[in-house]
Amino acid sequence: MSSQSNTNLKELFLNGIVKENTIFKLALSLCPSIAVTNNLKNGVFMGVAVLFVQVMVNVTISLLRNVIHPKVRLPIFMLVISGWVTVTQMMMAAFVPDVYAKVGLYIALIVAFASILARAEMFASKNKIIPSMVDGLGMGVGFLFALTVISFFRELVGKGSLWGNAIINTKPLLIMILPAGGFFAVGILMALFNWINARYAAKNAHASH
Amino acid sequence: MEASKKEHNFIVSVSPHVKSGETTSRIMWTVSIALLPALLSGLYFFGPKALFVTLTCIISSMVFEHLYLRVVDKKSLVGDGSAFLTGLLLGMNMPASLWSFSPFTAHIPVIASFVAVVITKQLFGGLGFNVFNPALIGRAFALISWPKSMTIWNEPTAAFLSMDAKTTATPLGILKEAGVSKLIEVFGDKMSLYEHLLTGNRAGSIGETSAIAILLGGLFLLAKRYISWHIPVSFLGAAALMAWVMGGKDGLFTGDPVAHLLSGGMMLGAWFMATDYVTSPSLKKGQIIFGIGCGLLTMLIRLKGGYPEGVMFAILIMNCFTPLIDRGVRSKVFGSVNAATAKGGAK
Questions:
Q1: Is the pTM of the predicted complex or chain greater than 0.90?
Q2: Which domain holds residue A96?
Q3: What is the CATH number of the domain that holds B105?
Q4: Rounded to the nearest 5°, which phi and psi values hold at B168?
């Protein structure tokens, strides 16, 4: 019984990273994935902020799921989300003020992220606390992973540096840190991610036969 | 049974029934030949460096086209000349100062060719499906990525073999910074300025400097009916009008349209870039709208924008509007009746 639920939780966790990756698979929340990812540091902190909000919102909604009246559920979800976003904002302003100065605007925008509201509505409001937390963890880690990869690629190619340290000495491809380059990066990495996934799936299908 | 077998002797096929000898590759190679005078004048004024840049673009465009088609298991069409033409146009739109012997330091032309052929053309479905002019996207990508390297202009040396590299400003750069009076001062007098602009003895991209050579190629294509007059004439006409009305510093109607028409990439853009079959409207009326849009946007960027030259961005912006223009401007279908007159007639 317990091993059964463990594999379910593992699948739930991986679901958010691979099968329903917010950016690479669902193509949701593309605004931050283009706006804040022109350097690795901003991308990682943005991802961590979303991860934190996603987990806390899922847990809170799951706790309150029997008390929330279905007719007013969306305003209440929004209230919970904006509460946790405010907490994140204050924490970032206190502990990483330099990052907050750059991505603060987009941290506030987390309130309107489709992915967070979607998970609250689709999953957390119908499930118990532990699965909800794991689901939020998976979704958040998937988002963090996508943002890290995108910002790693963009900073390396566009500025020739990583986490602010210069690595490549030649003239970098400046367009990659401009908004247009963000679309290029997301498109290329999305194609790569899906290609790897397709190959992996084909291999698995082959092995099981 | 017997009768139905007999029917099969008739050949039933869809149109077209009469075919001309024209093929895609023949058009591509003819346009390439039409570019030859402009290329030769570029090589004459900028020397072997221009040859290196152009060859790098042509070779890498063809290699990328071949490699991409190989990777996606399609038949390699590298011989149809479209990759050659893209590379040639791209090379002619770059400054000769980008030259390099080593393939490792010639990364700007190589990456621009990759963007032009693979991203702009092949990823959109290959020849005939690209939304934007591949060579222009390649150049725009390079200009935005390496704004400094892409705007180092060599002074023309007027000798095929000179490797000297003295950098100087382009006529448009001077026009932007200091105005037309300074430009005339640099070249002596007004007639000498026009002469330099016509022959191509001025700084600029490899293939854009000589207005006469480009005009020669353009008229050749016009005579062969490969292009029609609609786009170049409306493009240049709208630009000249706007340069005359808005271009002067002393008020309206004091601008110098000739200097604007002959400088920058205006000629090359109007005759060879804007007339690309795939990315321009197919009907005459639409082509005139397209040309006017290009001309006005070019002059708007030149006079009011941050860049001294606007031909590239103007054509790319109008490329976006091509499907819209094609949808808005429809030819009258034979036998169709206007709904309003039909109602009146029925009474």
A1: no
A2: 18-208
A3: 1.10.3430
A4: -155, 175
